């Protein structure tokens, strides 16, 4: 539900913004601050007035924001939706990725991959999707490898345990 509401706000911002990429970057930075527990508590508190919440967010962006962004924050404040800024930021970043046809993904494995293997994975994903995919590595306790590009709906798992189970099933069926 939040994402549907956030999508409307993101569309409105892109309609009036002159530099959507800069606004998205500012919203991403603001989202990181809002994800702080104390800040989120202040934004959702019924004790603090909407005007004070709006002023708090406007002071946080300071002079970095253009007029459209300041007005956007004021509208969010008037409608008591300042807590949606992280969701609006996420939706706006997704839209920018679609426009530029560049996506980010994650590779999880117990052992880090070398740069050549990571480049091969990126190239394979580019051939498969037609989009540029930049992969980041994360260490996990997975006995295999997992590649995920959430915005494209791609998730590929290679697990030693799974291959072993499939091999055993194949042998059982063959007998």
Summarize the structure.
The chain has 175 residues and is of the alpha+beta class. 62% of the residues lie in helices and 16% in strands.
What do these coordinates show?
By secondary structure, the chain is an alpha+beta fold. It has eight helices and four strands. A four-stranded mixed β-sheet has the order 2-1-3-4. Helix 1 crosses helix 6, helix 2 packs antiparallel against helix 6 (85-100) and helix 4 runs antiparallel to helix 5 (67-78). It is elongated.
Q: What's the total number of strands?
A: 4
**Shape assignment:** elongated
- Could you tell me the CATH topology label of the largest domain: Peroxidase, domain 1
CATH superfamily of the largest domain: N-terminal domain of the delta subunit of the F1F0-ATP synthase
Ranges where pLDDT stays below 50 over 5 or more residues in a row are none
Give the topology.
Blueprint: H1 2-16, H2 20-34, H3 37-44, H4 50-61, H5 67-78, H6 85-100, E1 102-109, H7 115-129, E2 132-139, E3 144-149, E4 154-159, H8 160-174
Parallel strand pairs: 1-2
Antiparallel strand pairs: 1-3, 3-4
Helix pairs in contact: 1-6, 2-6, 4-5
């Amino acid at each position: 539900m939040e994402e549907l509401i956030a999508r409307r706000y993101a569309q409105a911002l892109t309609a009036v913004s002159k530099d959507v990429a800069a606004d998205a970057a500012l919203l991403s930075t603001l989202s990181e601050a809002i994800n702080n527990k104390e800040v989120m508590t202040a934004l959702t508190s019924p004790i603090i007035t909407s005007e004070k919440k709006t002023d708090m967010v406007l002071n946080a962006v300071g002079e970095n924001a253009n007029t459209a962004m300041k007005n956007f924050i004021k509208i969010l404040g008037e409608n008591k939706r300042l807590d949606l800024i992280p969701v609006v930021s996420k939706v706006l970043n997704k839209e920018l990725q679609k426009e530029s046809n560049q996506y980010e993904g994650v590779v999880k494995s117990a052992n880090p991959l070398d740069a050549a293997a990571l480049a091969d994975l990126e190239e394979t994903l580019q051939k498969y999707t037609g989009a540029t995919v930049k992969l980041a590595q994360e260490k996990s306790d997975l006995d295999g490898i997992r590649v995920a590009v959430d915005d494209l709906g791609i998730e590929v798992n290679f697990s030693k345990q799974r291959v072993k189970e499939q091999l055993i099933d194949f042998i059982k069926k063959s007998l």
